[in-house]
Amino acid sequence: GDALRRGVIRLGDQIKDIWFRDITSRIPPVSPASYIVYTDGSKYYAKNGDSGMIEYSDVDASNVIQYAIDKMPLPGGTIFIKRGTYVLSKAIVINKFVNLVGEGVRATVLKLADNANSSMIDYAIPCSIADSVSQLMYIAHMMLDGNKANQTSGTQAIRTVVPGYCNVRDFMIYDVWIDSYKGDGIYLVSHNYLVLHVAIEHNDGWGIRLDSTGGFIIGSWIWLNSEGGIYHLFSSSSVNPNIIMANMIAGGKAGIRIEGTASGLYRVHIISDNYIAGTDANTDTIYINNTLYTFIYNNYINAVSNRYGIYEDIGANETFVFGNYTSLSRTSPYYVIQGSTSKFWSLMRYRTVDSGVATITAGQTRVTVSLSRFIKAPNKVLITPLGQPPGKLWVENITSTSFDIVTDTA
Q1: Nearest Cα to 205, choosing from 241, 233, 229, 169?
Q2: Chain-centre distance of CA 61, in angstroms?
Q3: DSSP 190-230
Q4: C-alpha pair distances (Å), 183 with each of 226, 234, 363
């Protein structure tokens, strides 16, 4: 058991090293780009990166970016979108292996037009070419503004597959800000994803929604999405390790929800080094069911507003929980339904010692002292009078949230 725990921690440390020192350095430079898209404030232009010729212009940015994608020869290339705001009347459809790169999250902004009611970036790669080339695509250095106040419907801002086409894999979203979309922020299907240094905020669904994916790493800021942070629903077995690490996940109903349609389908999930919180008393900060080999460690699980900190439902087996700090939840910090199996090492970190000063008001015989972040009633409460008490002093009504200091003389 201890060897397994040490091995998982080592794996997590190695993954973090890869993120910050290796993966992000592998994003190729934007130059040379197959096409350069830019704006003069009223129109948008597509310039051929090889010839330097302006090939197309339009008042609708989605038409210009789509032109560059469609004209790009197979297997694909890079489109560099220069700083400016690009208003999209419809989704950009990625139909070959294309990288979209901006000049920064506050510089290049793709904004959904009023009443567009669509996704923003759709991956629709024909199956005839999907398996012929190593895909290795990415979106980097830009903002996606969903303009949800002026939409009546939505699906996902970024969808990695649309019906009738093949799933995208070997795909990275890096240094991207997805804000105010009327639906989920990102929808991922298939396997081999990296979502790193991404801010996903104020969307009307989940921050990231995964469907039967495997082999993904998520390390981002996922904040104020109405349903919650990360939702993973799977219907087929996966043996690839899936890592949710170094995230700030808060402001939605739930934090992380992982569930399958049959017992033991989903294998090897690592949830580590996150701050996770939710806002709904009927949901749980972390919920897992029908999982196998799930490691939950080194997290701050802020469950004050949720039902449970961690809820392990039926079919969740071989769950390893250690080294977390879990605040008090409305019901209990941890719940394991009968039939699941868990292993705990140093299950939760709680405040175990506290001190302070309390004053009995003149003319009264008792004062109630409130406690915070205690998992159970203290074993002992020691009181020391500051000065000479008028009579005897003792402690009553000790619970996990308060106790009374009492005197027999007012």
Answers
A1: 229
A2: 29
A3: EEEEEEEEEEEES-SSEEEEEEEEEEEEEEEEEE--SSEEE
A4: 9, 20, 59
Could you read off the pLDDT of 124-155 as tens digits, one per residue? 988 888 776 666 789 999 999 999 999 999 99
The per-residue pLDDT for range 42-96, each reduced to its tens digit, is 899 999 999 999 999 999 999 999 999 999 998 889 999 999 999 999 999 999 9
Q: Which of 254, 265, 353, 236 is nearest to 302 (CA)?
A: 254
3-state SS track over 248-308: EEEEECEEEEEEECCCCCEEEEEEECCEEEECCCCCCCEEEECEEEEEEECCEEECCCCCE
Residue with tokens 């389908």: 265
CA distance 190 to 238: 10
Q: Which amino acid is at 296?
A: I
How far is Cα of residue 64 from the mean position of the Cα atoms in its chain?
Answer: 32
The two tokens of residue 357 are: 């000063």
The total of other beta-carbon atoms located within 10 Å of residue 3's CB is 7
* Omega before residue 32 within 30° of 0, cis: yes
> Based on C-alpha coordinates, what's the Rg of the chain?
26
Q: Which of 97, 107, 55, 105 is nearest to 76 (CA)?
A: 97
pTM: 0.81
> Residues 84-119: pLDDT tens digits?
999 999 999 999 999 999 999 999 999 999 999 999
